[in-house]
Amino acid sequence: MEGESAGQSLWFVFAGGGTGGHLFPALSVAQALRDRAASVDVSFCCTLRPIDKEVLASAGVEAIPLTVLPLTMKPWRWPRFWLRWRESVALCRRMFERRRPAAVIGAGGYASGPPVHAALRMGIPTFLLNPDAVPGRANRYLAGRPGLTGVFAQWAVTRKYLPSDAPFEVTGCPVRLAFRAARGADRRAVLESFGLGPTLRTLLVTGASQGARSINEAFALLAGRLDWTGWQILHLAGQADAPRMAEAYATLAGRSGPAVPKTRVLPFTDRMGEAMAVADLIVSRAGASTLAEIQAAGKPCILLPYPYHRDQHQRHNAMVLVEAGAAELVEDAKDGAFNADRLEPVLRELMADDGRRERMGRLAMTLDRPGSAEAIAVRLLAAAGACDFCASGPVKTASRRIA
Predict the structure, then answer these.
(1) Which fold has domain 10-175+370-389?
(2) 35, 217, 234, 400: least surrounded by Cβ within 10 Å?
């Protein structure tokens, strides 16, 4: 385990994972802790999903996989769930008895439950990161547990979904440093590096890390319907659909009629900060961390929330930006042709109105909280009794930067 003989260093344990939306905000806070305090160790209790191991290894953070399973509504699976729950809680208790964490921070998802539960029972300062407008089941349950030190929320609307006595703070959602650094990038150079025209307006289409088939199929149709004069598309289609989308766009190249867009199709990109920075309009899912990144980039967007989740949490996220005037909402019909019909008039209007897009982008940026990770780090250090590190300005360290 990281830092077993680290002397007086502070050990912060984050818990959660399973998606980038749970991992990246927590890692931004971890980096802020490392920047501010000279002697900090960070570990992450996570799921068994490969994304957790890959992202945490890249960030230089110790991964502690837990066998806990997501809670199911199927009674015949409850015995296995409780077995894995007790097993994971016991593991966390043993770890925390060997070395007491300065604080435990639940980052969302089912893997956050056992470490937070164990920390609360042991009187360890315990916090929740809650980027979604409506908390998920794990955070709703944990927010009502006695002894919780704080809940860090992206938006004020979350308050009404938590117990009235939950210790609640609006901090914003921490965003990776790459997104803020990209705002000063050379637009022409970035577009050329993506293989796109340096002077064309750019539509960024993304369905999150795995892509979104119903959005991809809609654009295979929309590419042939709209007049794309002056526009181009950077389309992040996901690993499964990228070849098909590239072929769909290529078949339009020789046709007559409305202008065909210049396109670049990628399965994904690890340069998302730059991609958003050069976009003039974004079509996206509405994951909480994605919206935090759009807010940081200050970009207008059309949001198609993930339609299959029982609690429709992405729709609630999207409505925060819609009500602020920063986004348009298009309900995902789970069918490419229907989505094309719904998207077409919205896209046509926004592509033709430079002034409206600029206004939407400015309104998106008003929702951004640039100091989110640092504010949370200061709060964690204060709870750990490390107030020497809480003065303004980071303490210089030699720690490896988290991407």
Answers:
(1) Rossmann fold (3.40.50)
(2) 400
| CATH topology classification for 178-366 | Rossmann fold (3.40.50)
Q: Where in the chain is the domain with CATH 3.40.50.2000?
A: 10-175+370-389, 178-366
**Nearest 5°: phi and psi at 401?**
-75, 140
Q: How far is CA 69 from CA 73, 110, 111, 137, 144, in A?
A: 12, 7, 8, 13, 21
Query: Per-residue pLDDT for the chain (403 aa), expressed as one digit of tens each?
Result: 444 444 579 999 999 998 888 999 999 999 999 998 878 999 999 999 999 999 999 999 999 999 999 888 889 989 999 999 999 999 999 999 999 999 999 998 899 999 999 999 999 999 999 999 999 888 888 898 889 999 999 999 999 999 999 999 999 999 988 888 898 899 999 999 999 999 999 999 998 766 789 999 999 999 989 989 999 999 999 988 899 999 989 887 666 556 778 899 999 998 999 999 999 999 999 999 999 999 999 999 999 999 988 789 999 999 999 999 999 999 999 999 999 999 999 999 999 999 999 999 999 999 999 999 999 999 999 998 865 555 444 433 333 344 4
Phi, psi of 173 (to 5 degrees): -105, 120
